[in-house]
Amino acid sequence: DTEVTQTPKHLVMGMTNKKSLKCEQHMGHRAMYWYKQKAKKPPELMFVYSYEKLSINESVPSRFSPECPNSSLLNLHLHALQPEDSALYLCASSQVNSGEKLFFGSGTQLSVL
Amino acid sequence: GEDVEQSLFLSVREGDSSVINCTYTDSSSTYLYWYKQEPGAGLQLLTYIFSNMDMKQDQRLTVLLNKKDKHLSLRIADTQTGDSAIYFCAGGGRDDKIIFGKGTRLHILP
């Protein structure tokens, strides 16, 4: 299994809603990532979990809250988002966090109204 | 910090070769990568090269690395309509972060 699975594929939410994005991998990778990608731009790193511990937070606003319940799962909890947070949210994993090749999921396309 | 530069757009006739170029600033990267992104999809790891290699071939794909000039290229032979996508060059930067270029949109002409 070489897949990173993300759900949901599409999400529309209001600014007062609370929602969660989910990501799962079964490759035994010990590093998992959240990226945000705006249209026609490269992915921007948000968070890195290494061995289930948050190792990098790229100064992301607190309305985004990551969680790593176990080595296969990664969640991104969303609360009180702004319209400018609308983007493609990509999950990725790698064997370890040392510049290793990343495997990406297909993303969640998020629209904030 | 690390910077990765690539041209934004390339137009190629079907059947011709496509060459996408990239320059980077951080020579400490162990790996350099090419990712492909089709519309509405995530990034697919296309190929990668160790920094101590100068060439890697994988079917229609050839990666060339010139460490002296910090230049990486991806050649796609016999370009097909399914190759139409955005191609991102990426390398390991400081703190083991992967740094992406802005992406090159490859357009295939019939």
Quick description:
The complex is a heterodimer of chains A (113) and B (110). With 113 residues, chain A is mainly β.
Description:
The complex is a heterodimer of chains A (113) and B (110). With 113 residues, chain A is mostly beta strands. Chain A is built from no helices and 11 strands. Chain B has 110 residues and is mainly beta. In chain B, strands 2, 4, 5, 9, 10 and 11 form a 6-stranded mixed beta sheet that branches. In chain B, strand 6 and strand 7 form a beta hairpin. Chain B is globular and about 40 Å long. Chain B starts with a strand and ends with a strand. Classes of the chains: A mainly beta (113), B mainly beta (110).
Q: Would you tell me the overall average pLDDT of chain A?
A: 93
Name the beta content range of chain A.
Answer: over 45%
Question: Helix tally of chain A?
Answer: 0
Count of DSSP H/I helices of chain B: 0
Q: Low-confidence runs of chain A (pLDDT<50, min 5 residues)? A: none
- End-to-end span of chain B in angstroms? 41 Å
Which sheet architecture does the biggest sheet of chain B show? 6 strands, mixed
Shape of chain B: globular
